[in-house]
Input
Amino acid sequence: MTNTIKNTAMPMKERLKGFGQIAIAGIILALLVGVVFVVVNAQGDDNNAKPVKEPNITIQLNDTAALLYDAQMYASHMNVSIEEAVRRFKLQNILVPEEELRTKESETFAGLWIEHTPKFKYVVLFTRDGEETIKPYLKKYLEFAELVEVRNTAKVSLDNLRRAHDDILSSISTSNISMNSNINVFENCIEFYVKTGDYDRLENALQKTKIYDNVKDEVKIIQVEALAEDYVNIYGGLPLSTCTSGFAVKKWNWWGWIKGITTAGHCSNNQSYNGNNLPFKSENWAGSYDIQWHTAPGYTVINKIQVQSGGSTRTITAKKSRNNQNIGEYVCKYGKNTNYTCGYICSKNFNPQTQQNNVPTFILVNNTANWPVLAGPGDSGGPWFNTNTAYGTLKGGFTSGPNAGDAYYMAVNYVESGLDVIVMTS
Output
């Protein structure tokens, strides 16, 4: 998308192996003064962002090492210090009033996101009177108040965009036009992605709907060579027979916990790891869900994910639901084919519009961090995360058009509600 916000006993020396020439002494000093919680001397300029490369490390990443690993990627892309990257990761997780604004200020609230350049901040978009509307929330969300910028440039509230989006999809549901759709909060519009040959068909179908005349200025039809697609081709991030494992999960039975691993629901129900069959338990591939899980006889299921092609892992110790994920957050994924990549959340309302998944609840991540692609065939089901927090599991991505290289995932809370399991964090 063109619019972007755009414990092991291992010695410290070994844990930092492969981090290149990144001022190791400075990192150690930062750790000693509590960099995980408070960071000082942060850089604020984010210009000259550049591509990143996966470090060559093969270690077990504990909480601190995982933080530094992701921070190095971010710092390299944004041209800031690792200390500043860590500070920003902390700020990505402060309490923000998005849900309150969406429900209590639905007439004027048009979106909330994080911007990383020229400095890190939260942006709140309104149709009018934003400075007055936000005041009571600034008293409640003190950390957020120090970072917020209010804009009154939206023509339509987010609530009205969502209703219009739903109404349009319902009105054209019988047109049999293959497409994807999205709500773009940055541009305050509804986007429809359609193959070039179907542009006129979609435009004609939209013009026949009752609501289109009221919102046509906020609707964009984007022509692409290929639509977004699901990628198909014991812990998370491992190479299964056709896809990638997501997270370790458990489900209570009358004799105790049953444990297993997840992958995408659109993947084959017949999965194996290292030639060993993983018995299928259940799946949910409809609506907001694209998830299945398998038990793993002969394996000990643990709350880890692989994060590097050399086999490095990290422990998953927390989960972040869709409602608490912010547009603009920096998130990473691991898949068996494209390995470790990272990007920025650009939408929480992406609709793949497949027969099974025709709802705008998927998370779209843009590739402004300049990886070749964020994901590819075979990566489906792989984990999305930041440091040690689970964010979701990969569903698919774009291969052409303005979103080429972008990817989308199902949020982690849908793993649990879709399968009636618990994502393991201990």
Q: What stands out?
A: Confidence is low (pLDDT under 50) at residues 1-59. The two ends are 37 Å apart (CA to CA). Residues 25 and 225 are 49 Å apart (CA to CA).
